[in-house]
Amino acid sequence: MVALVRYHQVSRGTSLFVMFNKLSLLAFTLCALSAHGQLVGTYETETHPSLSWQRCTRSGCQNVSGSIVLDSNWRWVHSKSGYTNCYTGNTWDKTLCPDNKSCATNCALEGASYSSTYGITTSGNALTLKFIQPNSNGKNIGSRVYLMASESKYQMFKLLNQEITFDVDVSKLPCGLNGAVYFSAMDEDGGMSRFSTNKAGAKYGTGYCDSQCPRDIKFINGEGNAEGWEPSSNDSNAGNGGYGTCCNEMDIWEANLISTAYTPHPCEGTQSSRCSGSACGGQNNRYGSICDPDGCDFNSFRMGDKSFYGPGLTVNTNSKFTIVTQFLTDTGTSSGTLKEIRRLYVQNGRVIQNSKVSIPGMAAHDSITTQFCNEAKAAFGDRDSFGQHGGMGGISKSMTAGMVFVLSIWDDHTANMLWLDSNYPTDADPNKPGIARGTCPTSSGVPAEVESSAANAQVVYSNIKFGDIGSTYSGTA
Ligand SMILES: *[C@@H]1O[C@H](CO)[C@@H](O)[C@H](O)[C@H]1NC(C)=O
Ligand SMILES: *[C@@H]1O[C@H](CO)[C@@H](O)[C@H](O)[C@H]1NC(C)=O
Ligand SMILES: *[C@@H]1O[C@H](CO)[C@@H](O)[C@H](O)[C@H]1NC(C)=O
């Protein structure tokens, strides 16, 4: 039997069950909504928490006053002129959402109380995402936010011949959790101009897509994903609709205290694109979408260096450190094609070179290149869906067009995050190259367990800098 390689189930929208206390909402003015389409609610003003970051060139860095927005999937979605939930737990209201289109005309996305409902706070250049936030409706689990350029536009990053750097504190992020930072090829306006029935847009965090072509997204292309929605059997906050939404994804950072990986996932095309049913890939048809669900991952532990990343190791995850990721092109300019993705770390003023691959059949690579990917797929016996979907050149197209910066924290109802931090597949010989990815037990990461045992987990991202190669960090060798 061929064991499924099932890593990189990225950022499922573990959604909040929000049933607001009606009395507390009577204080808000109820405005009549005349627009038709995926609407916005008026009970809670949407105020984006500010987050400053820096844009750098070789002559120095400048502050940019940005902000973040919560993804729409986490928001209260209710009848356009009342308090009735359109979506509760993991099911749609059959009256408000009898079909996809009327779901969008009947339902409104509400503003978010970032700190008290979702456990999302910012201070200066730092963003803290709590894993669990108790609130008046029960609790919120995980979150996903995007960096904004303005009230209604995401900040777009053109990555070629540039580097992105930030500090992270994963010391409170145990086995089974993932503090993820990545770029997705979402629309700058959240899809408002391409899909006229989307009246909410980036201001309300719409338009998410990734290389797993997620089907747990409640609104896609300005329509509800209500028809054919199946509640998850093991996640009381999620389900899968008939549609999914695919796009190029560059995972800069998928990590916890024990393991880390960075991974490009190319798709055909540059923009987000809606898929239907098994053409979204997933459960029984993993490789059936236009995207590469596996990616070409560089996880130091999986690549043979077991003493590089972790508590007390070369990159000591007990305290804060800096991650630098560089996107080098064949021409050395932003008009070239992506040829190499390099990683550096900085901790306590010292620049730490990435670990080197130590796997039979592979050269001692310390970065992601086509050659690294080819050798890894061969050495591990993995299917090369990365190459089949365009490889480095495939994801390069979206990097030219611009991508949205995503920051999240999540647990994994599909594979307990074992693809990141344990032996996976769990029934394979852990001595076989590619199976061991970290020291977490194969029994770890069960969502019901981590949601109670790691209720105080959180991740802090800070000091985000973007710019010319070599301009965003310093340190001694
Ligand atoms: C940039 O912002 C940081 C806080 O995020 C602040 O400490 C620093 O003084 C600012 N620099 C400039 C040049 O405004
Ligand atoms: C609604 O979406 C489902 C997939 O979720 C699709 O099969 C169906 O055709 C859509 N219905 C309409 C009326 O567009
Ligand atoms: C949870 O259910 C989904 C299907 O809804 C399934 O794919 C997944 O394997 C299940 N996860 C676990 C850990 O059993």
TrEMBL record:
Q: What is its EC number?
A: 3.2.1.-
What is catalysed by this protein? Answer: Hydrolysis of (1->4)-beta-D-glucosidic linkages in cellulose and cellotetraose, releasing cellobiose from the non-reducing ends of the chains
What's an example of a GO molecular-function annotation for this chain? cellulose 1,4-beta-cellobiosidase activity
Q: Which CDD domains match?
A: GH7_CBH_EG (cd07999)
Signal found in the keyword field: yes
Query: Which superkingdom?
Result: Eukaryota
One GO BP annotation is:
cellulose catabolic process
Q: Name one Pfam family in it.
A: Glyco_hydro_7
Query: Could you tell me the keywords of this UniProt record?
Result: Carbohydrate metabolism, Cellulose degradation, Glycosidase, Hydrolase, Polysaccharide degradation, Signal
Q: Where is the signal peptide?
A: 1-37
* Enzyme class of the recorded protein, top EC level: hydrolase
Family indicated by similarity: Belongs to the glycosyl hydrolase 7 (cellulase C) family.
Q: What is this protein called?
A: Glucanase
Species this protein is from: Cyclocybe aegerita (Black poplar mushroom)
